[in-house]
Amino acid sequence: MTDAAAVEAAVAQTHRRDWARVLAATAAIARDLDLAEECVQEAYASALGSWVDAGIPANPAAWLTVTAKRRAVDAIRRETRARSRLPLLVMTAEAAGQATEYEQAEQGDPGEAIADERLRLIFTCCHPALAQEAQIALTLRLICGVPVPGIARAFLVSETTMAARITRAKKKIATARIPYRVPGSAELPERVRGVLAVIYLLFTTGYTAPSGAALVRAELVDRAMHLARMLRELMPGDTEVAGLYALLLVTDARRDTRTSPDGRLVRLADQDRSRWDRAALAEAHDVIVGCLRTRAPGRYALQAAIASLYAEAPAYEQTDWPQIVALYDRLLEVWPSPVVALNRVVPLAMVRGPAAALAEVEKLQRDGRLSGYHYLPAIKAELLSRAGRARDAANAYRQAFDLAANEAERAFLAEQIDAHTVWSG
Amino acid sequence: MAQYAVLIYAHDSAHAPDATPGDLESCDQHADELTDSGTMVAAYALTPRDMATSIRDDVITDGPFVDSKEVVAGFYVVEAPDLDAALAIARRNPVVAAGGGVEVRPVHSSFVRSSPEAAG
């Protein structure tokens, strides 16, 4: 007999770490995502009892995979379970007669076979033929193993709505024959971008969720980190995958200092640098150096490099501003977004002064694409304040306040309005 | 193998009653490619939007059913092993590079009368 609490802890740990591996392997046998999900769920449930009797196996993931696969085989053989009447998942062999180049390259090492299946599952969940909200829901359910109620809470919809969204997506995968495979080299870069977008969106949703949902927020951030780490392990040669991983590491390293104990927002300049996660920052630094050595670093690698440079300065005032502006210029080349242009204004003000930066902000304001974006008036307000124009700054802070939705950010902006209103008398 | 319908969306159909072979060259060439490779199962080119008549709530009106910038200019059915393969085929339609687009839908079932008169 093994202690029930120890078994529970072991099951929880392997659930977090190995769910994707177990489900991906089972889906390849079941060829039906619903059936695979059910069998994996049952395997985890039965582990709770079996491991108390027989001890925790040396390789829990292997035990769970064997158990789930056996259940799938039994279900198919007996047809006793109410199997959906949807077509079977399209596998590589049947679909194309051969593996894609990426999969062939991986097949050299038999140990990679399981890794392959996780990648197939990721690319299937994040297929562009599915709506992005469905991609996100499927990723959390099938790759992270988050139960439907948890996903529903994170995205502020009812459980019924979320369950319907996931069912509909699974139905489309089967009916439209979205293949269970890693895309070929021609499509791969575009498809990887889609996967990275899902992970980044999960992270930012967690990072900026309303402060009332603090627990959900931490959970989403953890899941996004886990996914980014898994993808990096599965696609070690892809610099954008590495770039996203580094970006999440750097951003998350500052998690605890972003808000004060009473939930108020703390600006980067005012954050307690001694509390940043130095180990995470050092890991990110090494990854970024590797990315920047490549011929054309992508969007995520450059974003990570900027965030990392900010984090490396011993104090905010000692940030290497010219280098940051230079990185922003490169980022704008690969990702010409008005949000990037706005963020570039902050270091630009440090290099060339608030007046030059204000001119850039006004240019972006005329452009109009950021008219609903509260950071534009917020950044403008700060520049106006530094230029000694308190009355104009208060007005801009007010505009930002009206546009902001996050409570911590609204509280911060309200304070700024007060501070500048006093000054202008 | 599965069947997918490809619906062609364009400002209007190139297949006007008085269209010249030159007007139809790119469409015909693409159709020939798909037929020669054995991918094409069936294809229908439709006449322009001016020829369309719609019935809504039992009221007959002139023009396409949906009042939109694009109309369905034609549709064809291809055979492909999976959605990625079908999308790769559909993406090559000349309309995609000419400001229009295509919609790909898995076929549920089909019927075509097989008598010789049907060919018209």
Written account of the structure:
The complex is a heterodimer of chains A (425) and B (120). With 425 residues, chain A is mainly α. Among the domains of chain A are: 237-256 and 272-337, no CATH class; 351-425, Serine Threonine Protein Phosphatase 5, Tetratricopeptide repeat (Alpha Horseshoe), CATH 1.25.40. Chain A has 20 helices and no strands. Chain A has helices spanning 4-30, 33-54, 60-78, 92-96, 101-106, 112-125, 132-143, 148-154, 159-175, 188-207, 214-234, 239-253, 278-292, 299-312, 321-334, 338-352, 354-367, 375-386, 390-403, 407-424. Chain A is elongated and about 80 Å long. Residues 109-115 of chain A have low confidence and may be disordered. Chain B is an alpha+beta fold and 120 residues long. Chain B has a single domain (2-108), classed as Dimeric alpha+beta barrel (Alpha-Beta Plaits, 2-Layer Sandwich), CATH 3.30.70. Helices cover 18% and strands 32% of the residues of chain B. Chain B has two helices and six strands, in the order βαββββαβ. Chain B has helices at 25-36, 83-91, and strands at 2-10, 40-45, 53-56, 59-62, 71-80, 101-106. In chain B, a hairpin with a 2-residue loop joins strand 3 (53-56) and strand 4 (59-62). The radius of gyration of chain B is 15 Å and the shape is globular. The interface between A and B is small, with 14 and 8 residues.
What attributes characterize this protein structure?
heterodimer; A: mainly alpha; 20 helices; 71% helix; B: 120 residues; alpha+beta; Alpha-Beta Plaits; two-stranded antiparallel sheet; 6 strands; 18% helix; 32% strand; globular
Low-confidence parts of chain B lasting 5 or more residues at pLDDT below 50?
none
Instruction: Please report the first level of CATH classification, the CATH class of chain B.
Output: Alpha Beta
The helical percent of chain B reads 10-25%
How many domains in all of chain B? Answer: 1
Q: Tally the helices of chain B.
A: 2
Radius of gyration of chain A: 24 Å
Number-wise, the strands of chain B total: 6
Q: Portion of residues in helices of chain A?
A: over 70%
Tell me about the largest β-sheet of chain A: none
Number of strands of chain A: 0
Tell me the strand percentage band of chain A: under 5%
What is the first-to-last residue Cα distance of chain A?
Answer: 75 Å
Order of helices and strands of chain B: EHEEEEHE
Which two protein chains have the largest interface (Cβ within 8 Å of the partner's Cβ), and how many residues from each?
A-B, 14 and 8 residues
Unreliable sequence segments of chain A = 109-115
CATH topology of chain B: Alpha-Beta Plaits
Give the oligomeric state of the chains in this entry, treating copies of one chain as homo and distinct chains as hetero. Answer: heterodimer
The rough form of chain B would be described as globular
Give helix and strand order of chain A, one letter per element, not per position: HHHHHHHHHHHHHHHHHHHH
Number of helices of chain A: 20
What Rg of chain B, in angstroms, do the CA atoms define?
A: 15 Å
